[in-house]
Amino acid sequence: MRAVVQRVSHAKVSIGGEIVGKIGKGILVLLGVSRYDTEKEAIYILEKTLNLRIFEDADDKMNFSLLDIKGELLVVSQLTLYGDARKGRRPSYIEAASPEKANALYEFFVAEAQKQIEKVETGCFQAMMNVELVNDGPVTILLDSEKVF
Question: What are the structural domains, with CATH classification, of the chain?
């Protein structure tokens, strides 16, 4: 499982001009699921995301996590995180999970997040979405359950 974690002052996702998910201060997660992923990888990425110390304390040092600041979470499914563009010009998605598996793990990730975070918003799985955000910092962290980066 892969995640692009962005600290935001606010973010929203819309479909056809209609907002389907919106948060204030918190984290936007773009989440990709591989064909090898299980709930174990989803829990790993979720715990890492919620506990990353990427929010400033009173001394402007990144010491606080999303849980510490009681921030909000927006989770958007993103198949293209498993796009392999090493050969040719068209990315291959052979490592990405099937839509059924990806959606099940995406929904699991969101449900587990809702147990720990008061406000969790989402995009719409497999929809063409517009994601708008103000990256605060900017702070962007890449996570991979296989720890390749």
Answer: 2-144 (3.50.80.10)
